[in-house]
């Protein structure tokens, strides 16, 4: 880390060049929690063949992409205008001792 903000672009360029030089020798994955602003293509590459399945699950449970602060899997298709409207589902009361499957 460099305390001088003027060096930000130089450091980012160095890191990207370093990544590009080493990437051919890697397994191709990534630890998503260590990603910064690599973009959605890098997130997709990190999850590899599991990305499409994760996107379908995300669409089912978070179609408005409310949980999007991190480098996340985006739900497919257009995003609803209101996360409240998109997430309004009939709530099932929680009964102690019952699993998620028992409540369905």
Strand content: under 5%
The portion of residues assigned to helices is 25-40%
Unreliable stretches (pLDDT < 50, length at least 5) are 82-94
Q: In one word, what is the shape?
A: flat
Helical segment tally? 4
Oligomer: single chain
What gyration radius follows from the Cα positions, in whole Å?
Answer: 19 Å
> SSE order in H/E notation?
HHHH
> What is the terminal-to-terminal distance?
50 Å
- What is the mean predicted local confidence, pLDDT? 76
How many discrete domains?
A: 1
Q: How would you characterize the largest beta sheet? A: none
SS-based class: mainly alpha
Q: Explain this structure to me?
A:
By secondary structure, the chain is mainly α. 37% of the residues lie in helices and 0% in strands. It is flat, with a radius of gyration of 19 Å.
Descriptive key words:
104 residues; mainly alpha; flat
